Amino acid sequence: MAGRVVTITSGKGGVGKTTLTANLGAALAMRGQRVVVIDADVGLRNLDVMLGLENRIVYDLVDVIEGRCRLRQGLVRHKQLPELYLLPAAQTRDKSAVQPEDMVRICDELRGDHDIVLIDSPAGIEQGFRYAMEPADEIIIVTNPEVSAARDADRVIGLIEAEEKSPARLVINRLEPSMVSKGHMLGVADVVELLAIDLIGVVPEDSNALIAANRGQPLALSNNRSRAGHAFHNIAGRLLGEEVPFEPLREPRVFERLLRFVSPERS
Questions:
Q1: What is the CATH number of the domain that holds 129?
Q2: Which helix (H) or strand (E) holds 181?
Q3: What is the Cα–Cα distance from 201 to 246, expressed in whole angstroms?
Q4: 218 CB-near residues (< 8 Å, 6+ apart)
Q5: 87 near 103, Cβ under 8 Å?
Q6: Domain containing residue 224
Q7: 161 in a domain, yes or no?
Q8: Which helix (H) or strand (E) holds 39?
Q9: Is residue 9 within 8 Å of 41, Cβ to Cβ?
């Protein structure tokens, strides 16, 4: 069966989209999936650093598109997870170097040998967003539990629906229950009610996230030793169709309200 292409996007930068891509890729590979993560943010390469692969890059996405190397040569294998590969972005080019049909061609070639292709989309709604959306079978939208991020995510949802893509699913990143209880942060149910799409994961605030990113070691590799790492594994399980319950985050009355918005198969 051909592999699935999942694009991970957001309405604004800085919400944790690249962090999710790196950790979800690692968590899926740890489940035995053959995974490729594509850094589609041409000109601003970061996914390689998150995975600790910045020194192993020889070719990049634009090299593949322009024929300077074969696709297989552009893939960089993860040091610890042999089923995880990275196709890095080019740093010295801009997003005009990639067209939607280029991404479709690359993803179609990758589908044959891999189970899941994750595309780390550039933030915003310009050229990079459009070529990252084109090959997607599924879309995950990442937002933080704050009004500005949620509103930007809502705009992206409208664009996805206008393109008649399958309904997106939602990851809420960097949730801090104590701030929710004080009214300083939106709650899970507030965000789900505002965006009206299925929730696939909630990642709690975790002080280990920045340390892990700087070390090039995804938190998913620590699994249950990290709250966020455990959440990434739960998201991977749900993406694979597993029935993974949402775990209490000590947010007041969240789950009574959430039941109205999360479809039974996702809950």
A1: 3.40.50.300
A2: helix 177-181
A3: 8
A4: 22, 23, 25, 26, 50, 51, 212, 229, 232
A5: no
A6: 4-239
A7: yes
A8: strand 35-39
A9: no
